[in-house]
Design a protein that fits this description.
Blueprint lengths: L19 H26 L13 H24 L10 H10 L2 H14 L3 E7 L4 E7 L10 E8 L6 H4 L3 H10 L3 H10 L1
Antiparallel strand pairs: 1-2, 1-3
Helix pairs in contact: 1-2
Length: 194
């Protein structure tokens, strides 16, 4: 069981093309900021006035809405960092599933890279428990665009904070380097646990 009172440590030392400065800011400021806000919201929910709950505006509504933003900010960042560490090409069951569900690894890769260019926030490879297949999804905000009944396996952060220090506005090069840093054994282990 995950303890969300503690931040998760990075599972890697260095990445190819993505600087230590970018990762330090990303992990130590942004990710940990989401974690602190999530914890703060949990405390405020304990005393929120439930008797005044209202769909237009109420303390409970705002806290519950922002809870999803902060919680998904934590969970998506953890999945992103877990996806990194670099091992080259996929192997095992995840590779077989990518080929089965997308026709080839290259087809999946082309679609996922395009997804990274099209998204404003996140590109996500997820397993859908409803149809038993892998799907690529994008979401512009932490709390919009997720699909119920799916489990994220690989997460690409395309918010500017993930790449702007190292790449400026060259998101395409960042995505290329992201692919060089994917830790496929972690992705395969996640997939096999489903």
């Amino acid at each position: 069981m995950k303890d969300y009172n503690q931040s998760k440590k990075l599972p890697f030392q260095k990445l190819n093309g993505i600087s230590e400065k970018t990762i330090a800011i990303h992990h130590n400021k942004l990710y940990q900021g989401y974690l602190k806000k999530w914890q703060e919201i949990q405390e405020k929910l304990k005393t929120a006035d439930k008797s005044s709950a209202n769909a237009t505006f109420s303390e409970l509504r705002e806290l519950k809405l922002e809870e999803t933003f902060a919680a998904n900010g934590v969970l998506l960042h953890e999945a992103y960092f877990d996806s990194l560490g670099g091992e080259g090409d996929p192997k095992g069951k995840i590779k077989e599933a990518l080929i089965k569900d997308f026709g080839s690894f290259e087809n999946w890769q082309e679609e996922f890279k395009a997804l990274g260019m099209a998204a404003r926030g996140w590109g996500i490879l997820a397993f859908d428990f409803n149809d038993g297949k892998l799907h690529n999804y994008l979401t512009d905000l932490h709390n919009q665009g997720g699909v119920w009944g799916t489990s994220p396996l690989l997460v690409l952060d395309v918010y500017e904070h993930a790449y702007f220090i190292d790449y400026g506005s060259d998101r395409k090069s960042y995505i290329e380097d992201f692919f060089k840093n994917i830790n496929w054994s972690v992705i395969d282990k996640k997939f096999q646990k489903l």
